[in-house]
Amino acid sequence: xxxxxxxxxxxxxxxxxxxxxxxTAGSWVKPFKSAIQGGMPINGTSGKEYRGIxxxxxxxxxxxxxxxxxKWFTFNQLKAKKQTVIKGEKSTQIFFFKxxxxxxxxxxxxxxxxxxxxxxxxxxxxxxxxxxxETVEVTEPTENQVIENAKEFFDNLDYLxxxxxxxxxxxxxxxxxxxxxLNDFVSADEYYSTLAHEHTHATGIETRxxxxxxxxxxxxxxxxxxxxxxxxxxFVMARLGLNAEPIQDNSAAYLKSWLSSLKNDKKYLxxxxxxxxxxxxxxxxxxxxxxxxxxxxxxxxx
Length: 302
Known about the structure:
Blueprint: H1 7-25, H2 33-37, E1 42-43, H3 53-65, E2 71-74, H4 75-80, E3 92-103, E4 112-125, H5 148-155, E5 161-164, E6 169-171, E7 176-179, H6 188-202, H7 219-240, H8 250-264, H9 267-301
Parallel strand pairs: 1-2, 5-7
Antiparallel strand pairs: 2-4, 3-4, 6-7
């Protein structure tokens, strides 16, 4: 009898493939560099960014196939646009994960329980379709000079103070980030990548994203938190259109520490990506809040 392949089985396969890509690449971000600089993967119809593990799945496909577009569509979305997939092109599988509150049939008191809905979808990159691809000129930022859109992004994260310090770190006790100066880094990209890493750490406290592993002293929890911070940094750098190269030699140590855990728990990368998405969204929400406040002030002045 043929064994039915479930959606969870498909998710396990996707994560295993990502683990293999990371292992054979020998570097955390390097194979995704060109795809990351193209920006966060988005749905071509809604414009919404994909989240969690789907981001890495789509980046990995874009890197492997050489796609420069960050837009992805389902077959039905293309059909609605009266567009088609180029003959012979294959889709990339992504996953939708959502908690649902349902009636608990094991109890007679009408109480509810939470179950998790997991669905798989197939998407195609814009370059796999007959949609005309727009040519976008990418300009490399000048090293060790302020990158204005990055400066504005981090200036809007004004819920904590960034102080000058020779060693990058986040201090939960004082809720402050310590950072060397811009000119102490090899490039401006590395400076902003490090700053994004520390800001991701800062979202872990109870009053923000409240990550369970954040304050733990366990080695595995520390490695997990570093992975969350690395992924959060990558998401921010993609949003800003900057080079998300790993932070100096420390990334190799982080990579080694969590790869072994991945093999024992395939959902490890899923969990880290999910928590990094929450951290990333927290920072984005603060951006929008600040933009709204600025608009209100301008209206009052006018």
